[in-house]
Amino acid sequence: MKALYKFNSFIERWMPFVTPICLVMGVVFSSVFGKYAFIVPFLFAFMTFAGSLGSGFGDIKKIAQNPWPLLMTLFVLHAWMPVLAFGTASFLFPSHPYFITGIVLEFVVPTGVVSLVWVSIYKGNEALTIAIIILDTLLSPILVPLTLKLLIGSTVAVDAMGMVKDIVLMIAIPALLGMILHQVTKGEIKKTLGPKLAPFSKIGLIAVVTINSTKVAPFVKEMNPILLAVAATILFLAATGYVWSYLAARFLKADYATTLAVTVNGGMRNISAGAVLALRYFPGEVMFPVMIGTLFQQILVANAVNILHKKEIKRVAREGMEEKQL
């Protein structure tokens, strides 16, 4: 078991580099890994369950007195960014409806569960992060297909009911089960079962990224200017997601911990969920914009939290100097 714990720590530390490697592996060995696409929904359900063991229904109550950071984060995630993504993609790629669909799909999926790790490491508001993750995950069966239907439903056929079913099975039910166990055990399951499942959750993530990337292999192998333009668009939009979220937190005059939580959760996306939906419901052109986001996400969030953390350190040091002068 110690070997698994070491593996888990290693993967967490090097995740910004592991995910691009998985993407490359899936592209290069697409004929090998592509045969296992049928296990992806099960792996994703397991990852959601494992990630939800640290969250309880009580966490939602903690932010009830000040719900604006949560509501602002949801607004950025499911209103502002999807519309911005749709407008940008429609302007840049008017003759490529599947690329437009993929770009929009990238920015309608819920926030990433791994955002809690980044917020915890850099001393952000964990209670707010947990509440955002819980509510966003539980709302995703409604928000994801509805947003897709509203924005691109008239251009590309969207099986809304099929997506609702998949999101319920992959996200909502596993998340509820994990939260119920957390509640029943009064949080003890996070200490007992959580660490044991963590390494397998990382293995699942590696498998999901690798398997899902096989469908994008033909496009990566034949990279052309239009695909490079799509990749650059995803990078630009993903980066602005953190900027808009930060500005939203500043608009609310939030403290450092809350600003960090809003920025991280508003910028990160559950790309694996988007990839699963793209794989099951759309052609390969839709998969490319979604999967290419894995190349940027961890690097972007690492830089975002690092900038905010350094800014906070300077602020604390400045205030300390001012107090000494007084």
Short note summarizing the structure:
The chain has 326 residues and is mainly α.
Relative strand content: under 5%
Q: Count the helices. How many?
A: 16
Report the strand count.
0
Give me the CATH fold name. Na+/H+ antiporter like fold
Number of domains: 1
Helix content range: over 70%
Description:
The chain is mainly alpha-helical and 326 residues long. The chain has one domain: Na+/H+ antiporter like fold. The chain contains 16 helices and no strands. Helix 5 (68-92) packs antiparallel against helix 12 (225-251). The radius of gyration is 19 Å and the shape is globular. The N and C termini lie far apart (55 Å). The model has no long low-confidence stretch (mean pLDDT 83).
Which descriptors would you attach to this protein?
0% strand, 326 residues, single chain, Na+/H+ antiporter like fold, mainly alpha
